[in-house]
Amino acid sequence: MSENRSHDGYLNKYAYGLASPSVILPCGSTTTNDHFQRWSQKELCYYTHYGQQAFFNSFIFTPNRMANGVFLNAQYEGFSEHPTLNDWIAWSNELFLQNNNVHALEQLASNENNIEVWITLPYPSLYYKQTPNPLQQTYIHHPHKRAPLLKQWIKEFTQRFYQQFGNKNTLKLKGFVWPKEKLMSEEDIVLVKEVSEYIHSFHLHHMWLTQYGSANVIDWREHGFDVVVLHPNYYGNTPFDIDWITNNTIFSKHYQCGIQIPYGKGLLYDDHHIYQYLNLGLPDKCNYMNNAFIVFHFDGIHLHEVAKENPQLYTHMYTFVKGSYSKQPF
After folding, report:
1. Residue 121 gets which letter from DSSP?
2. How far apart are CA 192 and CA 151, in angstroms?
3. Which CATH number goes with the domain that contains 200?
4. For the whole model, what pTM was predicted?
5. The pLDDT of residue 164 is above 50
């Protein structure tokens, strides 16, 4: 059995020597919130520490809407003008903004809590509009430019990261995340394979955050991914019932994937969904708490809010991450 596979089939919690669970950190604004999110040390300390104790130590920075109104989040493709090369550069600059984002994590890292960083890639859309203006920045979407320019972005980001943090043993770049949940087109499949190979040339990993039942998930190794983590599509206030979590875990065990755990507020979510995820992770249930590679997705809520408004839940999340959680009624 592969050391990256848990005894019951999941992608191992410690696959490739990586830290898990990881947390998605969305940056920028969204379709429903104009607040431009830049992660400060004050906000991130609720993720990295539970009081004086180490908490999460793996983080995924992912872009939403940039300051100029352009969406870099591939899930919102078509909600704004198509990104330009300048928008890609702006995403890189945001990540390295002094006292925010990666720098803020670096300030919180320590010998007792080494921190791992993942970066969601910008997406070169399949959209391409021929224009008589040779300076038009949409050329990043040209079919023959997608791979070279994305690899250029990866190279420049990686070099910049190592220049700034290369001597920091407490902060490590672990890899990049493919920006689309679905892998549908042949053009994207070809691109993913080429990008995966390029990422591996830096001795880094390629992650895919996708959904249970998505196309091409069962063939994820053929596309060069190292880490694939599935979203069960269960929120509590939708037609999908709790069986979607269980079915997702069965699928994940069979195809050696990890598990996403969403916690949010809004119309999709009820008050109990997070405890359903936590309880099902226990050894006598679906057994992913200590066995599977996990990614937490906080939707519309930050952990500093949870800590202040629902400290009991904050404590239960901490014990889940540390593997000592016990079943809670709700």
Report:
1. P
2. 11
3. 3.20.20
4. 0.94
5. yes
